[in-house]
Design a protein that fits this description.
Strand content: 25-35%
Number of strands: 22
Structural class: alpha+beta
Largest sheet: 12 strands, antiparallel
Distance between the termini: 32 Å
Number of helices: 11
Length: about 450
C-alpha cells in the first residue's frame, strides 16, 4: 500500500466497474421497449426528489457512506459523483402528432426513455468539510426525420428535466485516522407522481474518491488497529469498497451495489448486458433465440440494445465457450506434501478428507517433491506383480499423489512413451507405485 495516488490503469479499472454499476438495470432482456419489465427500470442508486420515497411513488433522496482514511503525507482528495439523467425520446409523425412508433427510410423509431451520463467532479482539495451544489439543466432537442431537402416525415423530440442535487463531505478524526462521510442527495422539488419522480431522479448514483498522500482502509478487511474506527462507520443505501487493483488503496468506489474490495470486470464478458446479475451465457443464448422481428424491435429501442444484439450475433464459438465459466483453484500453484491427519481425527472424518488434494499434493523422494506433472523412472520392487515388472526402467509422468487409510502413499503415473497415455489420463486409468519405486528425473529441490 502507498499514498502516491492512483495511476491511469487503476483509474481505468475503477471506471469500468463504476460504469457497470451505472448501467445495471438500464435495459432488461428481451431489450425491447414493449417488454413490461422495461417500463420500470433503474433498480440501483436512484435518488428521488424530496419526499418521493415517503409518498410511495419514488426512491429515497440520498445515499451516504463513511470511509476511513490514513494520512501518509500532504493529502489531496478528488471526488467524482456520477449518475444518469433520464431523457425521454418522444416520436412525432409528419403532422407533429405524438406516436409510439415511426419508420422513416427503413429505420424504426420508438417512444422510449433514454439516459444521459452526468458527472460532477470537485477539484482536488484537502480532506476538509465541503458542500457543493449539483445543477444539471433540462433541455429539449428536436431531430427531424426524412430527406433534409424535403418536408419532414416526422421528428424525434428528446426532453430532459433539470436536476438539482448536493454533495457533502464531512471529516472527523477517529483514533489516528480520518473518517469521511460522503453524501449525495437530490434537492429537487417534490414530485407529483411516479412518472414525475423518475424523470427528476439521479439514477445509478455513485461516488469515486481518489486519495493522494493518504490511503483508504478496507472496510471488509481492516488492519487490527483500524478495526474500531471501521466498526463505527455507517452507510445508507451504499457501501464503499477499494476500487483499484489489489494492493492499491488510493481509490474508493461508494457503490449502491454491494461489492468486494478490488472488483473487476470479468475478462470473459465481451459486452455489458445490463440485466441485473443475470449470467452472460444465458442472456447471450436467449438473444440468439430471438426472432428477427424481436431483434429489430430491440435495435430500435436503444443504441445499447442494438450493440448487444449485434455483438451476440457476431459471437464466435470460442467466445461463446468462454462464457460457460472458469474454474479457478486458489491453491493450484502450491506444492506441499500430503498433509498429516490431525491427532484424534478419523480418516473418514470430512476434515481429514478435505485436507487431501491428489492433484496438487506431493511426496518427497530423494530430495525432490514429486507431484502431478513430475517425470520419474519406474523401478518396481518385490511387491510388484508380473505386469508391473514390464515397466521396470520406463519413464513416466505423475498424475496424482494419494494416501490410503493405512497411511501409505501411492503415486499415479502414465507411461511417457505409451501411445495411449493421453487416453488413460483422460478417463483416469493410472498405474500406481509407491514412492520407493520411483526415481525422480528432476534435480533435487534446494
Amino acid at each position: 500500500m502507498n499514498g502516491s495516488g492512483p495511476g491511469p490503469a487503476a483509474r481505468a479499472r475503477a471506471r469500468a466497474v463504476a460504469d457497470a454499476v451505472l448501467y445495471e438495470g438500464y435495459l432488461l432482456y428481451p431489450y425491447r421497449a414493449d417488454a413490461r419489465k422495461n417500463r420500470s427500470r433503474w433498480q440501483f442508486g436512484v435518488l428521488g426528489p424530496v419526499g418521493a420515497g415517503a409518498d410511495g411513488f419514488g426512491e429515497d433522496s440520498e445515499i451516504s457512506g463513511q470511509a476511513v482514511l490514513e494520512l501518509t503525507g500532504a493529502c489531496s482528495l478528488r471526488i467524482t459523483v456520477r449518475f444518469l439523467q433520464l431523457q425521454h425520446r418522444g416520436i412525432r409523425d409528419a403532422a407533429d402528432e405524438p406516436v409510439a412508433e415511426l419508420t422513416v427510410a427503413g429505420r424504426t423509431w420508438l417512444d422510449w426513455d433514454e439516459a444521459v451520463e452526468r458527472e460532477f467532479a470537485l477539484d482536488p482539495h484537502a480532506p476538509v468539510a465541503i458542500t457543493a451544489p449539483i445543477e444539471i439543466p433540462g433541455g429539449v432537442e428536436v431531430e427531424r426525420l426524412g430527406d433534409p431537402a424535403g418536408d419532414p416525415e416526422g421528428s424525434v423530440v428528446r426532453t430532459r428535466c433539470g436536476l438539482a442535487g448536493q454533495f457533502e463531505l464531512a471529516v472527523e478524526p477517529d483514533e489516528g485516522y480520518l473518517r469521511l462521510t460522503m453524501t449525495v442527495r437530490n434537492t429537487g422539488e417534490p414530485a407529483t407522481d411516479q412518472r414525475d419522480a423518475i424523470t427528476r431522479s439521479l439514477i445509478g448514483a455513485h461516488i469515486i474518491a481518489e486519495a493522494e498522500g493518504a490511503q483508504f482502509i478496507s472496510l471488509l478487511e481492516p488492519p487490527p488497529d483500524a478495526e474500531a474506527a471501521v466498526g463505527r462507520c455507517t452507510h445508507h443505501r451504499c457501501f464503499p469498497v477499494l476500487a483499484g487493483p489489489p494492493g492499491d488503496h488510493s481509490l474508493l468506489l461508494v457503490s449502491p451495489i454491494i461489492l468486494y474490495d478490488h472488483p473487476e470486470i470479468a475478462e470473459q464478458s465481451p459486452e455489458p448486458l445490463f440485466d441485473s446479475t443475470e449470467i452472460d451465457e444465458i442472456l447471450t443464448l436467449r438473444v440468439l433465440t430471438m426472432t428477427d422481428a424481436e431483434k429489430a424491435a430491440a435495435r430500435a429501442t436503444d443504441p445499447r440494445a442494438a450493440r448487444i444484439v449485434d455483438r451476440c450475433e457476431a459471437m464466435t464459438a470460442p467466445e461463446l465457450a468462454r462464457l460457460h465459466g472458469v474454474l479457478r483453484d486458489p491453491h493450484a500453484d502450491e506444492v506441499h506434501a500430503i498433509p498429516e491427519i490431525p491427532p484424534g481425527v478419523d480418516w473418514w472424518d470430512p476434515d481429514a478428507d478435505g485436507a487431501v488434494r491428489p492433484e496438487s499434493d506431493a511426496v518427497p523422494i530423494a530430495g525432490v517433491l514429486v507431484r502431478q506433472g513430475s517425470r520419474v523412472r519406474l523401478h518396481p520392487a518385490r511387491r510388484a506383480d508380473i505386469h508391473d515388472m514390464f515397466f521396470d526402467g520406463r519413464d513416466a509422468r505423475v498424475t496424482s499423489v494419494h494416501a490410503d487409510v493405512d497411511g501409505r502413499t501411492h503415486v499415479g503415473v502414465v507411461i511417457l512413451d505409451d501411445p495411449g497415455a493421453d487416453l488413460h489420463e483422460w478417463y483416469g486409468r493410472y498405474l500406481y507405485f509407491e514412492p520407493d519405486e520411483l526415481e525422480p528425473l528432476e534435480r533435487p529441490d534446494k
